Amino acid sequence: MNSIGQKIKQVFPDIAILKDQDNYSVFNGRNLPSFVKDFLIRKHIDSDGNLNKDAIFAFLDKHIPDDNNVVKNRLLRQEQVQLLTRFIITTDIKGGKVRFAIPDAGIKFNEAIIPDYIVGQHRDDLIDGEKWGVIKLIYIPPAGKEKGYIELADYKPFRPYKADLQYFRDCREQFTIEEWIDVLLSAMEYNPDGFSGTTQKMEFLTRLLIFVEPRLNMIELAPKGTGKSYVFGNLSKYGWLISGGKVSRAKLFYDKSRQQPGIMKNYDFVTFDEIQTIIFQDPPEMQAILKSYLEAGNATVDNYKFLSECSTMLMGNIELTSDFVPLNSKYFSKLPESFRESALLDRFHGFIEGWLLPKLNDSMILKNWTLNVEYFSEVLHLLRTSPEYSILVNDAIISEENSNLRDLKAVKRLAAAYSKLLFPHITSVEELDKNEFKLYCLDPAIRRRGIIKEQCHKIDEEFKEYMPEIRIK
Fold first, then answer.
1. Residues 370, 198, 215, 467: what is their CA dihedral angle, to the nearest 10 degrees?
2. Residue 445 in contact with residue 419, Cβ under 8 Å?
3. How far apart, in whole angstroms, are the C-alpha atoms of residue 471 and residue 356?
4. d(CA 441, CA 445)
5. DSSP 301
6. pTM for the complete prediction?
7. Shortest CA distance to 63 belongs to which of 139, 132, 151, 162?
8. Which end of the chain is more exposed for a tag (fewer CB within 10 A), N or C?
């Protein structure tokens, strides 16, 4: 066990958790995200890393059935069912009811209702969107002309940590930047020693930028097997992963028939995985809405103005040569036609060169002390709304006159995101180590925006690949 794990345990004594694959075998047969697994491990482990497996099995058997198909059957037999689960809420204006669905248990919106007294008790939490919590379900049989339905009879939000951002900042001060990079990688559930150097580590950590920065738009193209889907689908309940298939305006932005906003209203980030297989139901409409949203964070659908701070990530595969560089210098040539328009791509802030990342192997499996994923995701969520870092970047850098405004905004947004991730304890320009800021925040931001510019130029020569000079004051 390397020294960084021991230091994490020492500096974060109440947050650290031992990642031991033998312990996590208790979840075999149950497909749970990492933030739920870590919550349960932390709840049933002692300070020496000894896990009470029997207690976890008992909790799983009671709250997370290994066969979700039995849930509706048990309810129909008038059993009360208690679950730790993901469920989705929607407000039925016409019917005057708040409905919910549990996709994993086959429970649909038209079958399930949240009664007014439960909504009243959790008014700020039981709003439309996806939730995680411990819920109690009962079945209300048919009465007269009323059909039977499932009722949510009790609810406890899944919020095991109330993250203290100042505590996190104070702890960060006890690590060097090299150590902190390894802390972040281990918090993502990867072994830092499995990476070949700082370049690989930084490329991998760049995936976290959309977790901490509002309305940051990124693209990553990588070979298969580099862990793209795992990072975005398992580390945070505040993100939504779309893995190919049909994507509509109603699903993402606004459903006109139901008069309800889509998923981008309720999440910190949305990731489009397997972008080559995504099909827009109405490509011209989606292109227009995406352009508007990526530029300004809003879009108009009929008379409804959609507003959101949701970040976006496009992820796809890319073919490489035997030397592990892109086969085609035009990186976006294999994207769907809807995404190959330069005017749309120019609205993305930065690019991740996924071919620089290692393919996942046994050496990258973490077996060490690290930050609890649920705590880590809460901290990243809090950092999104901390304005100090954008102010710091504005105070720290200067650009040449007549700089392209879109380039300048992209670099500032990326640099602010890197600052939150790597230097959360530094919140004013007076505290800044300018050399470290340049090396780890500003230079990567300029390079990532520069790749977008270069690729847009290769699609349309009207787009200049020249990046303005942006430097530290």
1. 170
2. no
3. 26
4. 6
5. E
6. 0.84
7. 132
8. C
The rounded distance, in Å, linking the Cα atoms of 305 and 308 is 10
338-375 residue pLDDT tens: 888 899 999 999 999 999 998 888 888 888 899 988 88
Which residue intervals of 339-437 are DSSP H helices? Answer: 342-345, 373-384, 388-396, 405-422, 434-437
DSSP character at residue 140 = E
**Which amino acid, one-letter code, is at 366?**
L
Angle (CA) 180-182-184 rounded to 5° is: 70
- Euclidean distance between CA atoms 220 and 58, whole angstroms: 41
Task: Name the nearest CA neighbour of 110 among 122, 100, 124.
Answer: 100
pLDDT of residue 315: 92
Structure tokens at 3: 């020294």
d(CA 88, CA 157): 13
Which residue ranges form the domains of the chain, and what is each CATH number?
A: 70-157 (2.40.50)
| Single-letter residue type at 442 | L
Q: Nearest to residue 89, comparing CAs of 260, 245, 325, 301?
A: 260
Find residue 280's DSSP bridge partners. Answer: 247
DSSP-based three-state secondary structure for 129: strand
CA angle 150, 151, 157 (to 5 degrees): 125
Q: Taking each helix axis from N to C terminus, what angle separates 198-205 and 177-187, rounded to the nearest 10 degrees?
A: 50
Residue 59 CA from chain centroid, whole number: 27
| Cβ atoms of residues 97 and 113 within 8 Å | yes
Under the banding of pLDDT at 50, 70 and 90, the label for residue 151 is: very high
Q: What angle do CA 421, 266, 162 make, to 5 degrees?
A: 55
